[in-house]
Amino acid sequence: MSLATTQSIADIRARNKQLIEEVLKVYPEKxxxxxxxxxxVHQAGKSDCGVKSNIKxxxxxxxxxxxxxxxxxxxxxxxxxxxxxxxHGPVGCGQYSWGSRRNYYVGTTGIDSFVTLQFTxxxxxxxxxxxxDKKLVKVLDEIQELFPLNNGITIQSECPIGLIGDxxxxxxxxxxxxxxGKTIVPVRCEGFRGVSQSLGHHIANDAVRDWIFDKLEPDGxxxxxxxxxxxxxIGDYNIGxxxxxxxxxLEEMGLRVIAxxxxxxxxxxxxxxxxxxxxxxxxxxxxNYISRHMEEKFGIPWCEYNFFGPSKITESLRKIAAxxxxxxxxxxxxxxxxxxxxxxxxxxxxxxxxxGRTVMLYVGGxxxxxxxxxxxxxxxxxxxxxxxxxxxxDYQRTxxxxxxxxxxxxxxxxxxxxxxxxxxxxxxxxxSGIKEKYVFQKMGVPFRQMHSxxxxxxxxxxxxxxxxxxxxxxxxxxxxxxxxxxxxKETPRxxxxxxx
Amino acid sequence: xxxxxEHVLDHxxxxxxxxxxxxxxxKKMFEDPRxxxxxxxxxxxxxxxxxxxxNFAREALTINPAKACQPLGxxxxxxxxxxxxxxxxxxxxxxxxxxxxxxxxxxxxxxCVSSSMTEDAAVFGGLNNMIDGxxxxxxxxxxxxxxxxxxxMAEVIGDDLNAFIKTSKEKGSVPAEFDVPFAHTPAFVxxxxxxxxxxxxxxxxxxxxxxAGTVPKLERRPNQAINIIGGFDGxxxxxxxxxxxxxxxxxxxxxxxxxxxxxxDTPTDGEFRMYDGGTTLEDAANAVxxxxxxxxxxxxxxxxxxxxxxxxxxVLSFNYPxxxxxxxxLLVALSRIGGKDIPEQLARERGxxxxxxxxxxxxxxxxxxxxxxxxxxxYGVAAFLLELGAEPTHVLSTNGNKxxxxxxxxLLASSPFGQxxxxxxxxxxxxxxxxxxTEPVDFLIGNTYGKYLERDTGTPLIRIGFxxxxxxHHHRSPVWGYxxxxxxxxxxxDKIFDEIDKKTNLLGKTDYSFDIIR
Lengths: 500, 518
What we know:
The complex is a heterodimer. By secondary structure, chain A is of the alpha/beta class. Chain A has 20 helices and 15 strands. In chain A, the strands form three sheets. Chain A has a six-stranded mixed sheet, sandwiched between helices. A four-stranded parallel sheet of chain A has the order 3-2-4-5, sandwiched between helices. In chain A, strand 6 (230-236), helix 10 and strand 7 form a beta-alpha-beta unit. The relative contact order of chain A is 0.13. Chain B has a five-stranded parallel sheet, with helices on both faces. A four-stranded parallel sheet of chain B has the order 6-5-8-9, sandwiched between helices. In chain B, strands 3-2-4 form a three-stranded parallel sheet, sandwiched between helices. The longest helix of chain B has 23 residues, at 481-503. The radius of gyration of chain B is 25 Å and the shape is globular. Chain B starts with 17 loop residues before the first helix and ends in a 15-residue tail after the last helix. Chains A and B meet through helix 3, helix 4, strand 3, helix 5 and helix 6 of A and helix 1, helix 2, helix 3, strand 1 and helix 5 of B.
């Protein structure tokens, strides 16, 4: 059991503050000053978490962050299933991000759907020296010939594109015209842009605005009869089927989901979204930009919601319903009532096994706050959290709606800091990514990947909560954690050899 | 509602129920989907010789390649040295990718840092990133060595690693005598095997040739030792341990260079070992005195071996030795160069492999195989199949070159079982898809991505290669040597028997052949 549960808030605050001081000692002076701004102990009542964010990572520290390409191809665009997404540049970026994000979709892969294919222009030295535009032209032609049922193409720029001065916009325009107005979207998401995946999300959102919305016929006939209950799911990547276990609730309450952004999404759904009556925004970080744009341009309001854990799901269903008439409000109550027995049974089964256990989180731009309620529904306590690529508005939402007093906050944490924090706080569970998973498991700390759901899921919705509860239980209460100590050796203390 | 607390359904079953199926059916109307008949028509068209011809006419587009980029190989080689932190100069997202990729295969941590270059570095160069980065890494992670490589960003803007590291040392980032070998590893040249080669050569050059002009070059005093280089290998843990065991049995003094067999297989006992095992820096330096260097993978070590040869050593390379003859050749070479006899124990192991093949070959004989992967792995697997009386039919390597093609062709020509085989350098898995439709085979050998080919073409996949993300722990067992050959044999046989059982288990229809003894 962790120290955190046995101490007063004041003790915890003092310990966490001291821990931050200790961690900073390892750095050269300049680095210590910079890192100090990203680490804090949350104080109840403050409007944010008191950390700087969305600032360049420091060289050499082992940041966990990725790049703009990962934010655009890997997150926003990659899941659009009926478009071909070209990883434009050398082979690696597309290879490492091939199929690893678990954006589920239904389609005939390679024929009318392309999510789990790796299309790359595989740049060679001559493409760097002479430019890659000619090759891109040929790549587009070859896609058209071999994949005639693709509904559009995006060009996801890797680092060299912006450095060698290629004009992918010109190529896109020319080829689009040649193919009778086909949607071809150039995306300037070179990996060196910005400080993390985050700018890639923004660039990808802007590309939807400029290359899809701005090309829509202003009075084009809708492909379906609109209803007053049409909504779009924005910022759900359908990891392990998350968007599906969300959609089912929205439809059960009487809404009609006309688009999914972007998990299991299609170009037609993107194009239809300006017809929605309300945009439902799950991942605020990666898709607030396009939601704001649709509000300004098309007058569509947007509503943030949280489908992790029954408390937040119930709250969100009511919040969404409040935008509509009594029919939908009643629908929301009906849905809440329908799933209550499932929620009760899940809590009854798993809460006794997880009650009082502590959790440390470190994820991307949404889950460091969004999953806290789900843990609390199971009686667990989040004692530390931080964002890989959150901005200040994320930390505001975190402070105002989610974290408890004295929670340890770490922005853009690196390997060294995270290991030190865990060593000291001794949580019962860590939720983070693949690069962190095995480090902490070696230390004997149960772990769940909170990007990929550790190959499980969905975790969204009431159906997802049951899976979430099962998975946290199997991590925390796995018998293997009792075996890490050889019986002839002393009790090992989780420690980090390298830094000692 | 299908979900329940008693029997929690996850993605494997949840969405198959009527509620979700109806929901997904209704979703279709918003997707503006293609006509099912049209999808079917195109699907069938992609199976035709006509499509194959168009597919093979591709000049610019690569689809589902079986290769990664140079720095991945550089990181893989670098972690094989004692206390070594790989430092990749360039954009930071790349490092996140290498670490994830290696962790997903080995189910192990992979420590590596980036110099986190962004727009300003693109304009002004990454010198400051190098200066700060080396200082931070050195202080935080207390490495014994930092091995620098590059992403394509740093290569495109032309950063000079040698000069940058020198300046960083002058600025006090790391002590002047601290080891910072380096290698330029542009992603737009070669593949991960090239990066392995460049990084290893960079490290040896550092120790042997005067540490970038800061100390005198080592003077070679030949001894009796043999250096071993494994190359980029998904089975590095099992293979390097097996090679060490063989060398110890033979009593040959040796150094395994870039030995990452420990760091990719650390225990869970409460301690995270960021560094573990690895070739000691002292051994890396002293490796110059060895009488010979043997590479287990020719195409992972072209430049390295040339460099070693220029220092006066005998060099010899193998092509991922799997099976009887390949292991025979390896042992004979070790015996000849090391001046030691091959012990009886190894002869007995050989006999056991021959015994196993004799017991089972009837089930493999004449079966057609497609193989893809790194050039050496393809060669090693094909050679073993020929020994088993199987017929390699398509051998494809995205990062294989003309020289590889020629050598593969010679191997195939040397056996009656290789006569119907074609070799495809520089091709990808979408090409292979066409091949499997137009010239079907019985089994496919490749990495995890082969499961897409298995799904599309119905060719059963035997997972041998890198990466293997969706099966666990196979990297811990060797595929080299007689013992490794036995492992590969069993892997192939298990799949063959599973397939026979699957095809004969229909009650009252096909189960007369559902034999209890095979």
